[in-house]
């Protein structure tokens, strides 16, 4: 079989091969692509090698880490409000209750606004669905990690509507929706949510990497011993992962 030195990332479903991930830039400086070489990822000595389990395990926040969050622009526009007007008019805890699975979507619609006005529930869900898209460059990185058999899980504050994200973007091609706040009744940065995740994974926290765009969530992860990365963009994430032993 002819050895391939470098090639463009394959589409999902192509047989995986051991590789390192290398950043190359096209003529547009803001766009990052990835190519593969037939060398293996160089794991840091901080992760044990005498195990059949691929380490580290990667835990990804979803909104504004993997997927654009429509809440800040699309949703206020849907209601014909500014973001601050939306914050002032909505129930202060209804969304958090929905994220924790404590109320269903019909109850959310009933109490969403403090003044009791009607909520167009289906219109809101359509607005959300239309607003979901991958953060630039992140899908290529997820594919590269998946092709090299890294174990990846969502670790996210989101209601049952995570299914809308899945229906549109098919994140399950790359990771498992294992830790959603709506299924666990807890939200980041609740320490108990992190502890529950570690118990489920049956792994030492030092063998996990958690990526999130919110510094507080990352801070709590590091407090329980998980390696934390504050997500800002894909290029910086690649650099951080490289420092942790994943050769990007």
Notes on the protein architecture:
Pfam families: Hydrolase (PF00702). InterPro entries: HAD-like_sf (IPR036412), HAD-SF_hydro_IA (IPR006439), HAD_sf (IPR023214). By secondary structure, the protein is an alpha/beta fold. The chain has 2 domains: 43-67 and 135-243, 3-Layer(aba) Sandwich (Rossmann fold), CATH 3.40.50.1000; 74-131. It has helices at residues 74-79, 83-89, 94-99, 105-111, 121-131, 138-147, 162-169, 181-184, 191-201, 215-223, 234-243; strands at residues 7-8, 21-25, 32-36, 57-60, 152-156, 176-180, 208-212, 227-230. The strands form 2 sheets. Strands 6-5-4-7-8 form a 5-stranded parallel beta sheet, sandwiched between helices. A 3-stranded antiparallel beta sheet has the order 1-3-2, with helices on one face. A hairpin with a 6-residue loop joins strand 2 (21-25) and strand 3. The radius of gyration is 20 Å and the shape is globular. It starts with 6 loop residues before the first strand and ends in a 5-residue tail after the last helix. Residues 1-46 have low confidence and may be disordered.
Order of helices and strands: EEEEHHHHHHEHEHHEHEH
Structural class: alpha/beta
DSSP strand count = 8
Helix content: 25-40%
- Lateral arrangement of strands in the main beta sheet: 6-5-4-7-8
Q: Helical element count?
A: 11
């Amino acid at each position: 079989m002819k050895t391939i030195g470098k090639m463009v990332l394959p589409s999902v479903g192509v047989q995986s091969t051991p590789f390192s991930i290398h950043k190359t830039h096209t003529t547009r400086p803001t766009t990052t692509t990835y190519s593969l070489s037939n060398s293996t990822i160089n794991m840091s000595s901080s992760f044990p090698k005498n195990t059949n389990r691929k380490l580290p395990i990667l835990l990804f926040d979803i909104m504004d880490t993997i997927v654009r969050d429509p809440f800040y622009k699309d949703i206020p526009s849907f209601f014909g409000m500014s973001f601050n007007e939306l914050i002032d008019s909505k129930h202060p805890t209804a969304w958090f209750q929905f994220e924790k699975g404590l109320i269903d979507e019909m109850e959310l619609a009933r109490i969403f606004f403090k003044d009791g006005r009607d909520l167009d529930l289906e219109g809101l869900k359509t607005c959300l669905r239309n607003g979901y898209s991958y953060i630039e460059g992140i899908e290529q990185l997820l594919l590269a990690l998946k092709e090299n058999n890294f174990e990846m899980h969502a670790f996210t504050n989101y209601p049952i509507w995570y299914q809308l994200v899945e229906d549109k973007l098919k994140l399950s091609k790359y990771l498992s929706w294992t830790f959603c706040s709506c299924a666990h009744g807890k939200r980041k940065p609740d320490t108990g949510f992190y502890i529950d995740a570690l118990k489920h994974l049956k792994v030492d926290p030092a063998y996990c990497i958690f990526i999130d765009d919110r510094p507080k969530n990352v801070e709590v992860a590091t407090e329980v011993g998980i390696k934390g990365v504050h997500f800002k963009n894909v290029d910086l994430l690649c650099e951080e992962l490289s420092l942790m032993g994943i050769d990007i």
